[in-house]
């Protein structure tokens, strides 16, 4: 429904930013996880955003098309007593940089707020259109 | 629409077009904001008021319409209704990921557009209110 599609567009942005926020939270929670089910340390996860194809003149928002792992090498810390230490004494820690995650978290939060503002404006506009019926 | 032919005048027509354009602009801004973090995304914008002003300038130049004293005479150029156009902004790039959505700019556009929409819908409901007065007063 074109009349309310602004709400769907903003909702797609909210969903995408929320998912990004979840991934950041998961990255931070696993910043020191040296074990994962598929072996090796945890790897930082990132969402891949793509613009949804337009319906008519206007696009239909955003979607997360994939969640990928950061291919950068793990962080090495020399700690021979650690149970997951390699024979050379180094422990492979996740490639999660807490500062990067914090910056991304702020960006995701601001983007979420921007989408929320767009949602509220679309809703107010729909309401003022509905008031035409109450003359 | 035939019974309302005389009631639905040029002002209502212009207002409804402007309301459509403002609603479209809101969707475009929402789409831009949803893609705030999409790499390579380029913002869209709605062009309408400029087109309307151009058309009105053209019409005011052609205000002297041609006299038609015979059915076969041409009436001059009929005004074609202007609609909003969505264009992609390929020009500005200020981020490494080639995305050119500026959230402050989009939020400012949205705030202005929202107020614009509300004033248009107020104007529209004022038109409806005067129609209603005309209808009801005729009954007395």
Keywords:
heterodimer, A: 135 residues, B: 140 residues, mainly alpha, two-stranded antiparallel ribbon, 3 helices
Per-chain topology:
The complex is a heterodimer of chains A (135) and B (140).
Chain A: H1 5-29, E1 45-51, E2 62-69, E3 75-78, E4 90-93, H2 98-130
Antiparallel strand pairs in A: 1-2, 3-4
Chain B: H1 10-34, E1 44-47, H2 49-61, E2 85-88, H3 103-137
Antiparallel strand pairs in B: 1-2
Helix pairs in contact in B: 1-3
Please, could you describe this protein's structure?
- The complex is a heterodimer of chains A (135) and B (140).
- Chain A is α+β, with helices and mostly antiparallel strands.
- Helix content of chain A is 43%, strand content 17%.
- Chain A is built from two helices and four strands; from the N terminus they run αββββα.
- Chain A has helices at 5-29, 98-130; strands at 45-51, 62-69, 75-78, 90-93.
- In chain A, the strands form two sheets. In chain A, strands 1-2 form a two-stranded antiparallel ribbon. In chain A, strands 3-4 form a two-stranded antiparallel ribbon.
- In chain A, α1 runs antiparallel to α2 (98-130).
- In chain B, 25% of the residues are buried.
- Chain B contains three helices and two strands; from the N terminus they run αβαβα.
- Chain B is flat, with a radius of gyration of 21 Å.
- In chain B, strands 1-2 form a two-stranded antiparallel ribbon.
- The model of chain B has no long low-confidence stretch (mean pLDDT 81).
- In chain B, α1 (10-34) packs antiparallel against α3 (103-137).
- The longest helix of chain B has 35 residues, at 103-137.
- Chain B has 140 residues and is mostly helical.
- Chain B has helices at residues 10-34, 49-61, 103-137; strands at 44-47, 85-88.
- Chain A binds chain B through residues 2-3, 5-6, 9-10, 12-13, 16-17, 20, 49-51, 57-62, 107-108, 110-111, 114-115, 117-119, 121-122, 124-125, 128-129, 131-132, 135, and chain B through 19, 22-24, 26-31, 33-39, 41, 44, 85-86, 103, 106-107, 110-111, 113-114, 117-118, 121-122, 124-125, 128-129, 132.
């Amino acid at each position: 429904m074109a009349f309310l599609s602004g709400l769907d567009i903003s909702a797609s942005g909210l969903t995408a930013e929320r998912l990004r926020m979840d991934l950041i939270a998961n990255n931070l929670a696993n910043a020191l996880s040296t074990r994962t089910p598929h072996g090796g340390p945890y790897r930082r996860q990132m969402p891949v955003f793509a613009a949804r194809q337009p319906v008519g003149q206007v696009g239909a928002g955003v979607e997360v098309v994939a969640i990928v792992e950061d291919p950068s090498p793990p962080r090495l810390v020399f700690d021979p007593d650690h149970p997951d230490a390699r024979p050379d004494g180094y422990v492979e820690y996740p490639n999660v940089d807490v500062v990067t995650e914090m910056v991304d978290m702020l960006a995701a939060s601001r983007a979420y707020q921007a989408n929320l503002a767009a949602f509220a404006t679309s809703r107010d506009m729909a309401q003022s259109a509905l008031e035409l019926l109450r003359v | 629409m035939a019974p309302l032919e005389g009631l639905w005048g040029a002002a209502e027509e212009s207002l409804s077009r402007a309301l459509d354009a403002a609603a479209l602009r809101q969707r475009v801004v929402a789409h831009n904001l949803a893609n705030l973090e999409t790499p390579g995304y380029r913002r869209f914008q709605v062009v309408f008021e400029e087109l309307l002003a151009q058309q009105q300038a053209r019409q005011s130049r052609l205000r002297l319409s041609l006299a038609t004293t015979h059915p076969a005479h041409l009436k001059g150029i009929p005004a074609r209704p202007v609609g909003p156009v969505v264009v992609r902004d390929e020009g500005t790039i200020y981020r490494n990921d080639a995305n050119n959505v500026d959230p402050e700019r989009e939020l400012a556009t949205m705030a202005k557009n929202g107020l614009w929409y509300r004033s248009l819908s107020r104007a529209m409901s004022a038109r409806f209110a005067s129609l209603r007065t005309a209808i009801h007063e005729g009954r007395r």
